[in-house]
Design goal:
It is a single chain. The protein is α+β, with helices and mostly antiparallel strands. The protein has two domains: 172 residues, FAD/NAD(P)-binding domain (3-Layer(bba) Sandwich), CATH 3.50.50; 143 residues, D-Amino Acid Oxidase, subunit A, domain 2 (D-Amino Acid Oxidase, Chain A, domain 2). The protein has eight helices and 20 strands. Strands 5, 6, 7, 13, 14, 15, 16, 17 and 18 form a nine-stranded mixed sheet that branches. Strands 1, 2, 9, 10, 11, 12, 19 and 20 form an eight-stranded mixed sheet that branches. A three-stranded antiparallel sheet has the order 3-8-4. The termini are far apart.
Length: 377
C-alpha cells in the first residue's frame, strides 16, 4: 500500500467550486504541492452541486459584477485543453426592471457596455416576445437582455478544475473531514482529520457553509457568515410552447427566476432563509408563494403539478462580497469564503485572485482590498 503523505505546501478545505478553482490556478502557476480535502464522498455535494448554474453578469453589487465579468470571459473562452466540452451555453438572460429602477438602468447601460458587457435594452413588448408572448407587459417598465450569458455546465467546469489540478500534482481526498486546525507559534500549521494530522505552510478555508466553524476552531478573525437556503423546483412547460429557444428570465422585483431545461422549466423563488450549516430541503410553502408571484408576470407558466425539487445553502459575508486573503490574526490561515449565490460564475476570477495572493501576496487582476478579510476590522 502506498504511503499517505502528511505534509503539503497548501491544504484546501472544501471540494466545492471555490476550492477546486484555487487548486487549478495554483497548478497553472506550477504550484502542485496541494492537498484538496472534502468531507463528502464527492466534490460539490452541497452548494456548488445544487445551483441553478447560471452566468448573469449584471449585479446590484458592482464588485460582484466585476468578478462575474472576469469569470464570464473565462467561461466563454477557457484555455486550450482545459475542458472537454463547452462550459457555457449562451441561451441569453432577460432581466426585468420596475419603473423605480428603469431610469437608473438606462443611465448605467453605457457604462456597463464600456466595461465590456454585451447587453440590449428592451421594451416590455420586446422582452415578452423573447418568451413567445408569455409576459404580462404592465408588470415591468423595461428589460435588459444579456445575449452572451446563460447556463454554466457545473460538472464540466468542476471536473476540469480538478482534472487539471491533479495533472499539475495536486492530491484530492474525499471522505476526509477536518476536525481541527493546528496552530503552532501563532501560525496555522495544518489540519486534524480522523486519521491523523496533516501539516501545511498554508491552510485555505473554502468550506462553504462551514467556513465560520472552521475559522472558530482555528482562532482566526471572527467574520459573521450567514448560510441561506435557496429552493428550486422543476415543472413542465406549457403545452405547445417551444422553450428550447427561450432565455433565462430574472426579476428581482418579483423575487423569482426561471430558465428552460430539458425537463421543462427550472424555477427558483429566490428565498434566502438563514439557517445553520446543514443539508437543506426545499420549502414547499416558499415555492408556492413564488409561483403566485410568477402568476402575476407569466400566468400561463404556472403549473398544475410540480416535479423534482431541491435546496442548497448560499453563504454570505456581512457585506455580501467574497472574503479572499490571509487572515489578519492568524498567519498561514487563508480565507476563500462567502461566495453567496455567485460562486460558480465568479470562480475563474476568485480562484485566480486567491492563487495570486497566496503565492505572491498581491494580484494585478483585481483590487484585492475589496475582498480582504481585514475589511471587517
Amino acid at each position: 500500500m502506498a504511503q499517505t503523505r502528511d505534509d503539503f505546501e497548501v491544504i484546501i478545505i472544501g471540494g466545492g467550486i471555490a476550492g477546486a478553482s484555487l487548486a487549478y490556478f495554483l497548478g497553472e502557476r506550477g504550484h502542485g504541492d496541494v492537498l484538496l480535502v472534502e468531507k463528502e464522498a464527492q466534490a460539490a455535494y452541497h452548494s456548488s452541486g445544487r445551483s441553478a448554474s447560471s452566468l448573469v453578469e449584471i449585479d446590484p453589487v458592482y464588485t460582484l459584477q466585476q468578478l462575474k465579468m472576469i469569470g464570464g470571459r473565462f467561461l466563454r473562452n477557457p484555455p486550450v485543453g482545459f475542458a472537454e466540452n463547452p462550459l457555457l451555453d449562451p441561451i441569453g438572460v432577460v432581466l426585468l426592471f420596475p419603473e423605480s429602477h428603469w431610469s437608473a438602468i438606462e443611465q448605467a447601460a453605457p457604462v456597463f457596455a464600456e466595461d465590456g458587457m454585451s447587453l440590449d435594452l428592451l421594451t416590455p413588448a420586446e422582452a415578452s416576445a423573447r418568451l413567445e408572448g408569455m409576459l404580462v407587459e404592465d408588470q415591468f417598465a423595461g428589460a435588459v437582455a444579456l445575449p452572451e450569458d446563460g447556463y454554466v455546465d457545473v460538472h464540466e467546469l468542476l471536473s476540469s478544475y480538478i482534472r487539471s489540478a491533479r495533472r499539475a500534482g495536486a492530491e484530492v481526498r474525499f471522505n476526509t473531514e477536518v476536525t481541527g486546525i493546528c496552530v503552532e507559534g501563532g501560525r496555522c500549521s495544518g489540519v486534524v482529520t480522523p486519521t491523523g494530522t496533516i501539516r501545511a505552510r498554508t491552510v485555505v478555508n473554502a468550506a462553504g457553509a462551514w467556513v465560520g466553524e472552521i475559522a472558530a476552531s482555528a482562532g482566526a478573525t471572527a467574520v459573521e457568515f450567514t448560510p441561506r437556503r435557496r429552493s428550486i423546483v422543476m415543472f413542465a412547460a406549457p403545452e405547445g410552447a417551444d422553450t428550447r429557444s427561450w432565455p433565462m428570465l430574472w426579476s428581482d422585483s418579483h423575487n423569482f427566476y426561471f430558465r428552460p431545461d430539458p425537463a421543462g422549466i427550472l424555477f427558483c423563488p429566490m428565498d434566502e432563509e438563514p439557517m445553520a450549516p446543514c443539508d437543506p430541503m426545499a420549502d414547499d410553502l416558499v415555492i408556492a408563494e413564488g409561483l403566485e408571484r410568477l402568476r402575476a408576470v407569466a400566468p400561463r407558466l404556472v403549473p398544475r403539478t410540480l416535479g423534482r425539487r431541491w435546496a442548497g445553502l448560499r453563504t454570505f459575508s456581512p457585506d455580501g462580497v467574497p472574503v479572499v486573503g490571509e487572515d489578519t490574526r492568524l498567519p498561514g490561515f487563508f480565507w476563500l469564503a462567502g461566495q453567496g449565490g455567485c460562486g460558480i460564475e465568479t470562480s475563474p476570477a476568485v480562484g485566480r485572485i486567491a492563487a495570486d495572493l497566496l503565492l505572491n501576496g498581491a494580484t494585478e487582476s483585481f483590487d484585492a482590498g475589496l475582498l480582504a478579510p481585514g475589511r471587517f476590522g
